[in-house]
Design goal:
This protein has 1459 residues and is of the alpha+beta class. Helices cover 38% and strands 26% of the residues. It contains 46 helices and 65 strands. Strands 26, 27, 28, 29 and 30 form a 5-stranded antiparallel sheet that branches. Strand 36 and strand 37 form a beta hairpin. Helix 1 (166-174) packs across helix 2 (178-184) and helix 31 (1161-1170) runs parallel beside helix 33 (1193-1209). The longest helix is centred in the last third of the chain and has 25 residues, at 1332-1356. It is extended, with a radius of gyration of 60 Å. The chain starts with a strand and ends with a helix.
């Protein structure tokens, strides 16, 4: 809670009306320019609280025009109307007049960013640049002077390019970033250490031009706009220039690297015409303007967005109040505006979750206004202290933000209302007092007997006697920390604490060494004083005796706490055993830990609110407590204040805020997300979480903890219309307004300091969780409750119950039950409920044990104890949205119930709508109830019921909804009112044909009813009409409509009763099996239409009965139909009987199927064979028995072989193969497959079977194929003979191969190889033929020797022809030459030789000899055509090879003809 102290400047009496003011950017020095009616001007400097600096007065007989402070040095540049420029130095008052350069009024004074350049400009357009040294002293004459011929209006320096961040580069270097390492080494470019000063600037003129002046002071025109330029701004992020003209036209230009400017945006800013306007530019590109309106306009140039901020009359502003001026403080994020009614309006930026700073989504919150007199014409934030100066046309006020002082002690609380006023509350008596001080109050300390205030310069003590305040002493003292105990005051000064009397007399000094530092923090609790120093030392003193004595030695916290920057606050507990400390880290940020110093153990521990846990090793709580720490929302927070209970040394409390809010100033602790955390702190058990709850709305800050209450200061109130009022929506529920007309005047100090002032209660107290309802209990009960809470926290239930066993009060037990809700201890809650005698709650808790979630059980306990908010949180925590929905409904929170059902409990959405509709109906809100009945989809029944007493409204609703169910309800209602015509109309609208037929029958319109039933086919209508016809003995129509209604049993009943046999059959077939059976019995008993009886028995599923009847009555056609439905699941005897029937009637295929179904496979096969029935694969599969229960394995194989034999006879070789294989007879399977001629399957089957016999059979089969032209078959034959271990057969195959080579290709070489292989095979074979094999081997060897000779002769011929001829002739002499070597081939060899040698006669003789030996052979097979032609030509004798050819061809033809 903050207030602004306003200090009026101590202006000299001769000073005139202030006209200009400006703050130094860092120092708390304000420059104020004033002018008198006599045209004289003055400039004066003032300090933080308005103190006048006499040495720095500047007066001239001219009006001051412009004031500009040096950015870092205490040097002020003054520009006057006559063109004079003066540099004024603070505090010496030295004045340096710049050489005469300007002859007209100064319009420009601008320093560069570091202050090394000063730019001056005047009304004539003259511009000069001056150089200033590091001390702010002028160096010589101007560097350059430019003439622009038009009045100069604005000037801004272009920011320099940012330098390298050395710290960031160092971290990157350590991390191994090579580029960062290079920048530190000689390899890279030199580092730009720190920010560079930009010396280039832009200057604008009244004719709309902007000129650019570079670092060498050379000027050039950059751009031009229409109208005089009022403001220039530089957009760093876009590297752009923004220009605003006097007509509020905003233009933005991008700046090129070569110096050019390109316009990219132009817009007209909204404003009130004809008014002076004030424009502010922020670093995050936010443009803020005011022009004498009730609003401030903001433009976000980065996001191209705009919005307005307006005054709120509910906060104390008046209608018609205008905002004249504006200023923005970036450090505080506060926007301030001065109004025409003497108020300072302030908006604080409150960032929303997920939004960044400066984001237009951020919320600007209007604060309580600060009131000053007059018309505020100029305001400005300034200095490093963020002071606000305001010019109200008469004087200047300096506003300094101060956190409102507040203190609580010994049941007395004091809260600051205004800079000079306190509100004092005595809780023992309930009295309210007001204290009006003569000075500003910067601190307050209260006890039950005194109120002490101070302002940093003076301490004033007031005696509090009853309801009277009396000033008992005041003394000068510059201590900023004061504490009070009894009659003693404790103040600080360097290296010591002074103990004073109320009149200021020093009674005792508590000295601190130089190492211990200067005392800066004081706190008293009971008889103990704790002192914190600026070197992070703490000391505790015992005040119980006359003189203060050291309770412990000095403790250096810097040795215990890493990164400790400074102490923020120190507090001690009631017995001086523990000291709690808040600190700031080295970087200045608040630490998120609370540290605890144990005086006796000399140890430092902490509770870390960032992780929500105490330091390791100090918390000895059980697992349940650890879960509490985990489950409580303590993480991610930072403590802002802390207190010990004034009498209970174990109890500690602190306020925490989210980490994101920790760095905000103390004045902005106005957040909703503040938690109050209570801990038990003991040596044995360390830190134990006792409670955590959000700070109540309407309260500002925690003041103290004094069991059984927390004490809070209320939020800042403001005065309006005789009443102090809270901010809208932030009233504390426990506070009350105090009106001047209704309440007695508050007690005033003595003597009175002005008129009576009305004020509200500024302190509100809230009971601790354990003491809700026990606020007035005696001390014994209070101590027992604290012990119970402590032992419950550490989990010692025996001690907990022992501490409260003597308590008989139901209120105490109820309060403990409430504690059990917070601690989730249901076991303790049951005991409490028992002592309370609350049977209903105990029963509800027992029933709730069925819920799996512990939180849901605790929520039920909370509901029974009336703790509805806790119940709601628990249901949300365990995500039991169904129970939460029920809770909302039971507690009358219907909107929350609907929201929960719509978002998380959709399964109960309609139920929720229905319950809400019922509630609305009970409340008489039928209109809204109707809507929710519709949402719940129960309106068809509920709305007519609800509106049945209001028939007019109900009829309107019926016609509007056009719903069939509602039409039907309304028609029924009309029927009950005997309005049959209207009822018929609405029944028709509802398409309720049954009701239509019923009413028409009632009215006697039978034809109309029949037409409706026939047209619609409605079964219910048809049934009703059939009953009507039956009652009137119209059987035919009754049967017809029973049939349309599908009430076949009724139709069958009528047919039987009335002998309608023809219709009976059709109806029975349409009906169910029971009706079919009944009709069949009817036909059988009647003895007629036996075929129908058989059919109905069959359709009804009684096949045996149908067959018996069919056999008995010789119904062959019926038997045919029945047999089609028989299968293997039918009775075998029945199947056999049917098969015999079909055999008798020569229907063999059907008989076979039935025999197979009856599993009489031999008979079925025999029938197939005898009647030559084709066995299909399906039939064969059905006869293939797989279950050993039906047949033995031998019988099964026998059946399979019979099936295969049958298939073989029928030529179905593949199926025969399959069945032989299944029977295990692979040779037969192979023979069947060989008959099929499927070579691929034969080869596959052979390779699968891998039996010797199979291999030989397959090889023999393959020899019948064209193996001569298919090498694969040849290889397969050889492989099969080899695998079949049949070398004699393989030898025979090799002999056949050799003969083919000789006969077809005359290739004796291959033939020789084949015969050689054959001989090898024969040698391997076993001789079982009694010597035949030896003769066969000898014959083979003889053939091989002859072929070898012939092959040798042919190979020798190219080398020695004569020897080859000799060998060939010798070979012809060999007996049995042929068939080893064909005689024709030997003679052909000789004939060819002699022809080549030219011995044609010899050749001819050889030819004749060949013809004699082979008279029937054609010589052309052995001798080439060329040799024959040569012989014929030379010898002149015709060769008769042609005749032989012709003859052979004739023989071939004859053979073909015969074939």
């Amino acid at each position: 809670m903050a207030v602004y102290f306003d200090h009026r400047i101590e202006a000299p009496e001769s000073s005139a009306v202030p006209s200009h003011l400006t703050w130094h950017s860092a120092l708390p020095v304000l420059a104020v320019a004033s002018s008198s009616p006599t045209n004289e001007g003055n400039v004066d400097l003032y300090l933080q609280q308005g103190e006048y600096v006499e040495s720095c007065h500047v007066g001239r007989p001219h009006q001051p025009a412009v004031l500009r402070w040096h950015p870092t040095k205490p040097v002020l540049a003054l520009g006057w109307e006559n063109g004079e420029v003066v540099l004024l130095t603070h505090p010496s008052g030295d004045q340096t007049v710049l050489p005469i350069t300007h002859t007209a009024g100064i319009t420009l004074l601008e320093w560069s960013s570091s202050g090394s350049r000063l730019v001056t400009g005047d009304q004539t357009g003259a511009l000069a640049v001056w150089k200033v040294d590091a001390r702010g002293r002028l160096q010589g004459n101007h560097l350059v002077k430019h003439e622009y011929s038009k009045p100069l209006t604005c000037c801004i320096f272009k920011p320099a390019a940012p330098g390298d961040d050395v710290a960031m580069l160092a971290r990157a270097s350590v991390g191994g970033d090579q580029s960062a390492l290079d920048m530190f080494s000689w390899k890279g470019a030199p580092l730009k250490m720190g920010p560079q000063e930009g010396l280039a600037f832009y200057v604008s003129t009244a004719d709309g031009k902007v000129h650019s002046v570079d670092e060498q002071c050379k000027t050039s025109t950059l751009l031009s706009v229409e109208g005089a330029i009022k403001k220039l701004f530089y957009l760093n992020k876009r590297d752009a220039l923004a220009v605003i003209t006097e007509t509020l036209m905003l233009s933005q230009y991008t700046l090129g690297p070569e110096g050019g400017a390109q316009e990219y945006m132009k817009v007209k800013l909204s404003s009130k015409t004809g008014q002076n306007f004030d424009i502010v530019w922020t670093e995050n590109s936010l443009l803020i303007t005011v022009s004498g309106e009730q609003v401030i306009r903001l433009w976000d140039l980065e996001r191209d967005d705009n919005f307005v901020l307006s005054l709120d009359e509910t906060l104390g502003f008046e209608r018609g109040e205008m905002i004249n001026c504006v200023s923005y403080c970036a450090a505080k994020e506060i926007l301030a505006g001065g109004t025409s009614h003497g108020r300072i309006a302030m908006w604080r930026m409150v960032a929303q979750p997920g939004s960044s700073k400066g984001d237009t989504n951020a919320q600007w919150k209007l604060q309580t206004p600060t009131e000053i007199e007059g018309n505020v014409t100029q305001i400005q934030w300034g200095s490093s202290l963020n002071l606000l100066a305001a010019n109200n046309s008469n004087t200047v006020l300096i506003l300094c933000e101060h956190v409102m002082s507040a203190h609580f002690g010994q049941q007395v609380a004091a809260v600051q209302l205004t800079p000079t006023q306190l509100s004092i509350t005595q809780f023992n008596t309930g009295a309210q007092l007001a204290l009006q001080s003569d000075t500003h109050i910067k601190g307050v300390c209260v006890t039950k007997e005194s109120v002490t205030v101070w302002n940093g310069k003076q301490v004033t003590v007031y005696e509090l006697s009853g309801t009277v305040l009396r000033n008992t002493g005041a003394f000068p003292c510059d201590s900023h920390a004061v504490a009070v105990h009894g009659e003693n005051l404790y103040t600080v000064e360097p290296n010591r604490v002074q103990i004073r009397t109320p009149q200021g007399t020093v009674k005792q000094l508590l000295t601190f060494s130089k190492a211990e530092g200067n005392p800066v923090l004081l706190s008293v609790c009971q008889f103990y004083l704790v002192v914190g120093t600026d070197t992070a030392h703490i000391r505790v003193f015992d005040l119980s005796r006359r003189d203060a004595k050291a309770h412990c030695g000095a403790k250096n916290l810097a040795e215990q706490i890493a990164s400790l920057g400074a102490l923020r606050s120190v507090k001690c507990n009631a017995n001086g055993s523990q000291v709690s400390i808040l600190i700031s880290q080295v970087n200045g940020r608040p630490d998120h830990k609370v540290y605890f110093y144990d005086v006796e153990m000399d140890t430092v521990t902490h509770f870390d609110f960032f992780v929500g846990r105490p330091s390791s090793g100090i918390s000895h709580c059980e697992d349940g407590e650890r879960q509490q720490f985990q489950g409580t929302e303590l993480s991610g927070r930072c403590p802002v204040s802390h207190f010990w209970d004034e009498s209970e040394p174990r109890l500690f409390v602190c306020e925490t805020v989210p980490i994101s809010s920790e760095s905000s100033s103390a004045s902005s602790v106005d957040m909703a997300d503040v938690s109050v955390v209570t801990l038990f702190c003991t040596q044995e058990h360390g830190l134990l979480l006792q409670d955590c709850y959000p700070k109540p709305a309407g309260l500002q800050a925690l003041l103290a903890l004094d069991v059984p209450y927390y004490y809070f200061s209320c939020k800042l109130l403001f005065w309006r219309a005789g009443v102090f009022r809270p901010e809208p929506g932030e009233r504390d529920p426990g506070s009350t307004e105090v009106s001047a007309t209704t309440s007695a005047p508050p007690h005033q100090t003595e003597p009175s300091k002005g008129a009576p002032v009305q004020f509200p209660h500024m302190v509100s107290r809230r009971a601790l969780r354990e003491f809700v309802g026990l606020e007035t209990c005696e001390k014994a009960t209070r101590d027992a409750m604290l012990n119970f809470s402590f032992y419950l926290t550490i989990g010692d239930m025996d001690e907990a119950f022992k501490s409260i066993k003597l308590i008989k009060s139901k209120a105490v037990w109820e309060n403990m039950a409430r504690m059990c809700v917070k601690t989730c201890r249901l076991d303790v809650a049951r005991v409490c409920l028992g002592n309370m005698g609350n049977a209903r709650a105990a029963k509800a808790l027992k029933e709730a044990e069925a819920e799996p979630e512990p939180e849901a059980q605790v929520a039920m306990l909370a509901i029974q104890l009336g703790m509805l908010e806790d119940a709601e949180k628990l249901y949300k925590c365990c995500q039991r949205h169904d129970l939460l929905n029920n809770f909302y409904q039971a507690s009358g929170q219907w909107q929350q119930a609907l929201d929960t059902a719509e978002s998380n409990d959709r399964i109960h959405l309609r139920t929720t709508y229905y319950n809400y509709a019922k509630y609305l109906e009970s409340m008489g809100n039928k209109t809204l109830a109707l809507v929710y009945y519709e949402n719940s989809d129960t309106h068809r029944a509920e709305v007519p019921r609800m509106l049945q007493d209001d028939t007019a409204s109900l009829e309107i609703y019926v016609n509007k909804m056009k719903d069939k169910n509602i039409y039907k309800w309304w028609a029924q209602y009309l029927e009950s009112q005997s309005d049959m015509d209207s009822a018929l109309h609405f029944y028709e609208c509802a398409q309720d044909y049954l009701s239509l037929v019923r009413v028409h029958c009632y009215m006697g319109n039978i034809q109309k009813a029949s037409a409706i039933a026939n047209d619609t086919g409605d079964r219910a209508a048809s049934y009703h009409l059939a009953r009507h016809y039956e009652g009137h003995d119209d059987i035919k129509q009754a049967v017809h409509f029973y049939t349309r209604a599908q009430a076949y049993n009724n139709a069958i009943r009528l047919c039987k009763e009335n002998g309608l046999d023809d219709q009976l059959m059709n109806l029975a077939l349409l009906s169910n099996p029971e009706d079919m059976m009944e009709a069949a019995c009817y036909y059988e008993e009647k003895g007629t239409h036996m075929d129908r009886a058989v059919t109905l028995y069959h359709k009804a599923g009684y096949v045996s009965k149908a067959l018996e009847l069919a056999f008995a009555t010789q119904q062959f056609s019926a038997l045919q139909l029945i047999a089609e439905d028989l299968n293997e699941n039918s009775d075998p005897a029945l199947l056999a009987r049917c098969s015999d029937f079909f055999i008798t009637h020569s229907q063999y295929e059907k008989a076979v199927e039935l025999l197979v179904a009856a599993k009489k496979y031999p008979q079925a096969l025999e029938l197939c064979v005898t009647q030559n029935l084709t066995i299909t694969e399906e039939l064969a599969e059905r006869m293939t028995v797989t279950d050993s229960k039906d047949l033995s394995e031998d019988a099964r194989k026998e059946v399979l072989e019979k099936i295969a034999d049958c298939c073989m006879r029928q030529g179905n070789y593949h199926l025969a193969t399959k069945k032989y294989t299944q029977a295990g007879n692979k040779p037969k399977a192979m023979r069947a497959l060989l008959k099929s001629g499927d070579t691929e399957k034969i080869v596959f089957f052979t390779n699968v079977c891998r039996q010797k016999e199979i291999f030989i059979m397959a090889a023999n089969y393959l020899q019948s194929l064209d193996w001569r032209n298919n090498p694969e078959i040849l290889k397969t034959i050889i492989g099969f003979y080899t695998k079949g271990r049949a070398p004699d057969l393989l030898a025979g195959f090799y002999e056949a191969c050799a003969q083919v080579e000789i006969d077809d290709y005359q290739n004796y070489e291959k033939a020789l190889d084949a015969l050689t292989e054959a001989a090898k095979c024969l040698l391997k074979a076993k001789d079982s033929s009694g010597g035949q094999q030896e003769a066969r081997v000898a014959d083979l060897q003889h053939k091989v020797s002859l072929i070898k000779k012939f092959v040798h002769a042919r190979r020798l011929y190219p080398e020695n022809a004569d020897e080859a001829v000799r060998l060939c002739e010798a070979l012809l002499e060999e007996p049995e030459l042929d068939p080893a070597v064909r005689i024709g081939d030997a003679f052909g060899f000789l004939v060819e030789h002699h022809c080549q040698q030219g011995n044609l006669e010899v050749a001819y003789r050889k030819l004749e000899e060949l013809q004699k030996r082979l008279p029937s052979q054609n010589v052309r097979y052995y001798i080439s055509q060329a040799s024959l032609e040569a012989l014929q030509k030379v010898m002149g004798v015709p060769i008769d090879g042609d005749d032989h050819t012709v003859k052979e061809e004739d023989e071939v033809e004859e053979d073909l003809n015969l074939s």
